[in-house]
Amino acid sequence: MNNRDIILSVIIPAYNVSKYISDLLDELSIQILNDVSISDKIEIIVVNDGSTDDTLGILNCYQDKLGDMLLIIDQVNGGVSSARNAGMRAASGRYLYFLDADDKLTSNTMKFYVDTITTRTHEQNIDIFSFGYVSEEEQSDMTKTVDYFWDKYDGELFDRDMVNRLYLSKQICFHIGSTIFQRDFLNKNFIDKNNDCFSEGIAIGEDIEFLLKSLAVTNNLSYHSRVCF
To answer: Is the pLDDT assigned to residue 27 strictly greater than 80?
Structure first.
């Protein structure tokens, strides 16, 4: 992988996800392999976190299909934060994107990510990119689809004060599955200070904690309202 100019590393923790992982890897394969303009700019890192089902066997089948685009890390179960940290340590991309095995992407999202990163970083060094998303949420006895995108902010570049003011006052929302982080930014603020990006041992809310830590130290965030996740 290191002999390619990787723009984006997609990091996926996987623990007993044999029911879901194929759908996500199929979608990623379609979006990446069918577009030669991005096929050499993305790597997929899946961390098998001590699964006891057939997750690892399924991943090995995709290794044959995806070749050096797919890196499989097999580790003893340590939890989702441990798996994400392991994926980060192995990543070679300029930007990192964290997905869960049961997440879904809209069509042509991977190309949109690469094109947006390439275009925007030609203009300025960007710490974080965030995009629109849709969530299925349980409300009373029904599942409701809730939109989280703000067209009025499309294309905006926020500094630290503005992005935190908007986020903490709930004028805008971010989700780890719709946010991309510069690897050097994370290394400088967390890894180089001997801190893990994701706090291990936290079972619930580790993604929100990571987002809050990142927003607290970011220099800027580029927002795009297109629904990607």
So the answer is: yes
- Cα separation, 21 vs 12, whole angstroms: 9
DSSP, residue by residue, 115-129: HHHHHHHHHS--SEE
User: Do 49 and 36 contact (CB within 8 A), yes or no?
Assistant: no
Work out the angle between the directed axes of helices 206-217 and 160-168 (0-180°, nearest 10). Answer: 140
Name the phi and psi angles at 199, rounded to 5.
-75, 120
Rounded Cα distance, 188 and 218, in Å: 11
Q: How far apart are CA 59 and CA 61, in angstroms?
A: 5
- Local structure of residue 199 (DSSP, 8 states): P
> 122-137 burial by CB neighbour count: b if 16+ within 10 A, else e?
eeeebbbbbbbbbeee
Q: What is the DSSP letter of 57?
A: H
- SS3 state at 221: strand
Per-residue pLDDT reduced to its tens digit, 79-118 = 999 999 999 999 999 999 999 999 999 999 999 999 999 9
Backbone angles phi, psi at 13, to 5 degrees: -75, 140
- Cβ neighbours of residue 73 under 8 Å, at least 6 residues apart? 45, 46, 47, 48, 86, 87, 90
Name 145's bridge partners: 136
To the nearest 10 degrees (0 to 180), the angle between helices 21-33 and 55-66 is: 10
Which 3 state secondary structure label does DSSP give 38?
coil
- List residues bridging with 130 in a β-sheet: 179, 223
Nearest to 10 by CA among 23, 22, 28, 26: 28
